[in-house]
Amino acid sequence: MVEGILFEQVEDSRQDWKVKHSISEILMVVMCGVSAGERSIYGIREFARLKEQWLRDVIGLKLPNGLPSYDTVRRVLGMLDPKQFQSVFIRWIEEELDIPVGSYVSLDGKSLRGSGLKEVGIDPLHLLHAYSHELGVVIGQMECSSEKTNEIPIAERLIQILKIKDVIITADALLCQKEIVKKIAKDNDYILALKGNHPLMEQEVKDFFLSPAPSTRSVHTTFDKGHGRIERRIYTLDTNIGWFEDKKEWKHLAAFGMVESIVTRKGKECREIRYFITSVTDVKQFAKGVRSHWAIENNLHWCLDVLFCDDACTVLDRNAAENLAIIRRIVYNRIKMLSKMDTLSMGKRACIYDDAFNRHLLCITAKGWQQSSQQQVNAPLPIK
Known about the structure:
Elements: H1 2-5, H2 23-35, H3 41-50, H4 52-59, H5 70-79, H6 82-96, E1 104-112, E2 125-132, E3 137-144, H7 151-162, E4 168-171, H8 178-185, E5 189-194, H9 199-210, E6 217-226, E7 229-238, E8 255-265, E9 268-278, H10 283-294, H11 296-306, H12 318-338, H13 344-353, H14 355-363, H15 366-370
Parallel strand pairs: 1-4, 4-5
Antiparallel strand pairs: 1-2, 2-3, 5-9, 6-7, 7-8, 8-9
Helix pairs in contact: 2-3, 2-12, 5-12, 6-12, 7-8, 13-14
């Protein structure tokens, strides 16, 4: 059962004599509500009230003192340390999944818009995610302030905590920093966007690609057609960078990259050029990394907002908002781990309408499922 494997590792700072409901019991109730589509603490409590017998008979919650009240759920989510809860989440991922060697992991931030209230000066919660494209799951997240510049020190800590090796890490220009590169290059490769936060370096790279193409320059072209447009992307990678004076300051820097996107729609053509620094030397590997990072908007952020109502959750308490966000990502990951549905939206729909699927989602780990003989779901991920 999830609560015994995952939630019982969460520390409880409450006084023993005041405790009527265990942390694992409360978090399990919350997870059940979230998987069913509830986005508020009140909605989660109402779901539990209506499905109390199901929680007991199917999920296996004993609930010796009945259901936790709305106030108890709200109070526990607010007092729970998100950092400790996050460490439990990361440890669960480490134990259950193998991150494939040579795969792509993207670092990207996302704000929870509903967690802020401009009128009273409360900024939205901002989270930095680490997302594995091959596995399709969130492997870690950490809270930043609403100021996105705080992603820089948070990214350094997240890379260190994750303990990932032999993968290719991608990130936007904000995280194109020498210290972050040092952390990444210790055990991994990187592909980082280069923009105006390094104006001199960006101009040097632009001028470099305007020069005649040497033999070290490789090109890969892709075509996409759909939604009334045709997009051609030209990926260019050049390893002839000995001329770059600061090369040694960027650990394992091996090449500069350029991506030219040419979009044709209704006879009109639009061009955009982006630049990158990278430790990879294969142009197809570079192209796949760039495309993977762009896909995080659809594969993660859109899903969290549309299917899990991430932005619509209006819980203002910072701890409660972040803890609910962690639980939403646990549910997101488990649907990806266990579902054989064609799309995540179908898996999310099954959480609401298919009690058998929901039981498996909530009651076992990916490792446990691999050992199961049930046919409703499967585990397409590489499980340890």
